[in-house]
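Task card 7
Instruction: Convert sequence to structure tokens.
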Amino acid sequence: MVCIAAFIILAIIGVFVAVISIFKPKVGKAYLKAFKKAWGCLWKKVRLQKCETGFKDDIKNTLLSRVIIKHPKWLKPLSILIEVLSVLIVIIAVWAILTAIKSLLALWALGSCNVTKPSACSLGAEVCSIDETEPTNVFEATGRWFTEWGEIFEAIPDKFRSYNAEDYDFNYISVISAENGGNVSDKIAVDIFDPGCSVCMVSYRNQKAAGFFEQYNVRLVPFAIQDANDEYKFKNSEIIVRYMFAAEQFESGLALGLIDHVFTDRDSEGVSYQNKFNEDYSREEAIDKLEQWLSEAGVDKDGIKEIRNIVDYPEITDKMNENRNIVENELKVKGIPTMIYDGARHTGLWKSE
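Output:
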């Protein structure tokens, strides 16, 4: 293990030695000689051959030469310590390499290098992540590490398949009645979003400005992100989703008006209403604002009362649970917005081509 650990260390410091050797060529020659020996030892280990003991002894003697003279009794314990440290260095290096490979595979297969917490990966698509509960101890963390490999390999076949928006029985809000008057493309697109997600808001604005809702028969799927403990990621997303489904059940087109207000409007001080719902409004204040918008859309007091009753129907809860099951278990989505159109699945911020 000593020679393998030496190779790892020499490989790491090689960059610095290369710079130093420009000014001190002797340092570079000495490093190259040691590196060749370490590589030769490692190559023999890979081929299951016995490593040269001479190199191992050279390493130990170099590290212990000064100690032997002053403290000869320390030789044996320090020699054992070097062996132990060598094993640890090799284990850490192997773990780091495997983790790097896992992260790259996850980035390719799932769109994020962090499987448990996609938002922690700066290399992935810009999304509002659907995070899993973080491990609380070493055993859970180790188990989670291996579970993530399973999720990655399970997701790899999905990279090579086509997606059909009609294959998924989502509960959705149609864009047809409010945006197109019924004159819409026969190409279907599914758009999964969270009312509290800022990336979803920007995507919605981009789609609206680019005429995406006229190019496709878009089915908006309201989805309030929850963690493993069923806590909602954004403060008032759940009540907005409930009112959207209830309003749509009362009268087609009302739900689209609600999300349009949340995503595109600002209050008198210029603050985005999405930010108000996420940061400022209590649940009661959020309900008041949603009902105010319904009233402005022409719903009378009796109608608002009926919508308020529908919000609490078990049917609404069932719709939300059904969507969650499709998103998390069938599609295995790690972040939203996620869209399905033109036979493919697209995750992250939608940008006009």
